[in-house]
Design a protein that fits this description.
With about 500 residues, the chain is an alpha+beta fold. It is built from 15 helices and 17 strands.
C-alpha cells in the first residue's frame, strides 16, 4: 500500500503565503528577488542614494512592506546580532583553493551521477537516507584506489562501510540494467586529476575489486594509465610512458605515489590518506578499544588521550585546538591527561593507562577532576573535533559524519564557527567535509567566503541523490538583513533537504 500524497501548494506570492508552506529554495529566492525589484522600482530610500536599505526600524518596516515572510523573520536579539557581526568580520585569509577541488561519482549506491565542487570547509545537509554518507564513502572509495587496493581492509581503514557489489552499485527501478562499473574522478586545483573505474561481478563477487581502467593526469598530460590493453607509466618528465606489469586488483596510482617528482601535487597521497570519522562516546571515553585506530585519532574516537597529550606538548599553533575546546566547555577550567588513579576513576571501569581529565571550575580543588568517563559526552565531541582540526598529523582531507551529534544546538553552532576559523586561518590545516542535522550549524557558516560551502542533498522521485550547492547571493543577503537565518529557512523547507512528512 502506498502512502497517499495530496496536491502540493505552490508559493505564488509572499504576502499570500507568508509561512512559505513547502516552498523550494528556488521559489523563495525568486520571490525575494521580486521584492527587491519592487523596492528598486520605488526608488532609493531616504537613508541613502545607492538604493540599499539602511539599518533601523524604518528599514525593517520597508522590508515588511516588500513582502519578507513574517514566519521566517527572527526577532532581533543581541546574540544573533553578535553572531552576524562575527560572520562578517574580516579574517586572515589563505589561498581560496582547497586540496580537493572537484569529485565526480557515477553508479555508486544512490549516487547515479553526482559532481561536488568543494571548498576548504564544507557542510552537507539533508534528510536521513538522502545520501550524505554515500558522498563521503564515494571519496573514500577513490582513496582506496589511490592507495593501491580496493577491498574490505582498505574500506575499514578509511571509514567506508564494507559491502557487497550488489549494494555498492546503483540499482534503480526502471533501468534496463545495473551499471557494471563504478566510475570515480577527483581533481586538485593545481592540475592534478585521478580517474578510476571499479568492477566486481554481482553474480560472483570477489574479496577485492578489479580496477578496470584508471588515469593519472597533470595539467592535461597523462602520467599513468591502465586499461584493457595494459598499464603504462611515465617514469620522468622528459620520457615517454612505458609499459608496466600490474595485477588487475592493484592500482597504478600507487606507483605514481612512490615517485614524488611525478606526483600531481600530492592529490593521490591526500586521497589515499582520506578518512571518514564517526566518533562514538564509548571510544571517546576510552572504555572500549577503537578497532579503526589511526594517528592522530581513531575513526571512532580512539587515541583521544594520546592526541590531547601530543597537542599539549606541541607548538603554539597546535595548542590552539586545546584552547578552542576549553573556551567552548564553559564549566571546565582546564584539560589534561592523567592516570586512572589521578582521574579518580572507579576500579570497576576498564580503561587505558592514560585518560583525559577535565577540571570542573565549580567544584573544590580536591574533588574537581573529572575523567572522560565521568565528563559530558558533548565535551568529548568538542575536544575531538578541535584536536582533529589542529593536530599536525591529521589527514589533509577529513570527513566527519554527523558532526553535531551529542551537542546542544548552540554549542554545535559555536563549535562549527570556531573550527571554521581554525581551518580558514591556516592553509596547513585539513580540508573538511562535514554532515550535520542541527539547523543552528548553518548559522555558523560564512557563506560569503568562497572557501566555505553548503550543500543540500535530497532524493529525486527516481531515488537518485541530488546535490546542490547553496551559494551566497543578493537574496540571502536581504534575507539575513531581515533576520531570516539559514536555520529558519531550512526548517521551513525553503532550502530543501527535508523529509516529506
Amino acid at each position: 500500500m502506498e502512502r497517499g500524497r495530496g496536491p502540493r501548494r505552490r508559493c505564488g506570492d509572499l504576502e499570500e503565503h507568508r509561512s512559505l508552506p513547502e516552498c523550494t529554495f528556488g521559489e523563495v529566492r525568486a520571490l525575494l528577488h521580486e521584492a527587491l525589484e519592487r523596492g528598486a522600482a520605488r526608488g532609493p530610500s531616504r537613508g541613502g542614494t545607492d538604493g540599499r536599505t539602511p539599518d533601523g526600524p524604518a528599514a525593517r518596516d520597508r522590508l515588511r512592506s516588500g513582502g519578507v515572510p513574517a514566519a521566517l523573520r527572527s526577532p532581533p536579539r543581541a546574540a544573533s546580532a553578535r553572531l552576524r557581526r562575527d560572520l562578517k568580520a574580516p579574517r586572515k585569509r589563505g589561498p581560496i583553493r582547497p586540496v580537493l577541488e572537484e569529485v565526480s561519482i557515477r553508479g555508486f549506491k544512490s549516487l547515479a551521477d553526482v559532481t561536488l565542487e568543494l571548498g576548504r570547509f564544507n557542510v552537507v545537509i539533508g534528510a536521513n537516507g538522502a545520501g550524505k554518507t554515500n558522498l563521503l564513502e564515494a571519496i573514500g572509495l577513490i582513496g582506496c584506489a589511490a592507495y593501491g587496493a580496493v577491498d574490505d581492509e582498505a574500506f575499514l581503514r578509511r571509514g567506508v562501510r564494507p559491502g557487497v557489489p550488489a549494494l555498492f552499485k546503483s540499482a534503480f527501478k526502471g533501468r534496463d540494467k545495473i551499471p557494471r562499473l563504478i566510475r570515480l574522478q577527483a581533481t586538485s586545483p593545481d592540475g592534478g586529476l585521478y580517474r578510476v573505474a571499479l568492477d566486481n561481478p554481482i553474480g560472483e563477487p570477489q574479496p577485492a575489486w578489479r580496477i578496470a581502467n584508471e588515469s593519472v593526469e597533470l595539467h592535461g598530460e597523462v602520467i599513468a594509465s591502465r586499461g584493457p590493453a595494459g598499464a603504462r607509466l611515465k617514469l620522468s618528465h622528459d620520457t615517454k610512458r612505458e609499459s608496466v606489469q600490474l595485477d588487475s586488483r592493484s592500482s597504478i596510482a600507487q606507483f605514481v605515489r612512490a615517485r614524488p617528482d611525478a606526483l600531481p601535487s600530492g592529490l593521490l597521497g591526500d586521497l589515499a590518506d582520506f578518512a571518514i570519522y564517526t566518533p562514538f562516546t564509548p571510544m571517546l571515553r576510552g572504555t572500549v578499544p577503537d578497532s579503526s585506530a589511526r594517528v592522530p585519532l581513531g575513526l571512532s574516537g580512539g587515541r583521544l588521550a594520546e592526541a590531547t597529550r601530543e597537542l599539549s606538548r606541541g607548538t603554539a599553533h597546535e595548542r590552539e585546538g586545546l584552547e578552542v575546546a576549553l573556551g567552548l566547555i564553559d564549566w571546565a577550567r582546564s584539560i589534561d591527561v592523567g592516570t586512572p588513579a589521578e582521574a579518580q576513576l572507579s576500579p570497576a571501569v576498564g580503561t587505558k593507562r592514560n585518560v583525559v581529565r577535565f577540571r570542573d571550575r565549580f567544584m573544590v580543588d580536591k574533588r574537581s577532576w573529572l575523567s572522560a568517563f565521568d565528563a559530558s559526552e558533548g565535551a568529548l565531541y568538542v575536544l575531538f573535533l578541535s584536536i582533529l582540526a589542529a593536530h599536525g598529523q591529521s589527514p589533509r582531507v577529513v570527513a566527519i559524519d554527523n558532526v553535531d551529534q551529542g551537542l546542544n544546538p548552540r554549542l554545535a553552532r559555536a563549535l562549527i564557527s570556531r573550527t571554521q576559523e581554525m581551518i580558514l586561518g591556516d592553509v596547513s590545516r585539513p580540508q573538511m567535509i562535514l554532515t550535520a542535522h542541527s539547523p543552528l550549524v548553518l548559522d555558523a557558516l560564512r557563506l560569503r567566503d568562497p572557501r566555505v560551502r553548503l550543500f543540500v542533498v535530497q532524493r529525486a522521485r527516481s531515488g537518485e541523490t541530488q546535490v546542490r550547492r547553496l551559494p551566497w547571493d543578493e537574496a540571502l543577503e536581504k534575507a539575513e538583513e531581515a533576520g531570516m537565518t539559514l536555520s529558519r529557512l531550512w526548517l521551513s523547507g525553503a532550502l530543501g533537504g527535508m523529509p516529506e512528512l
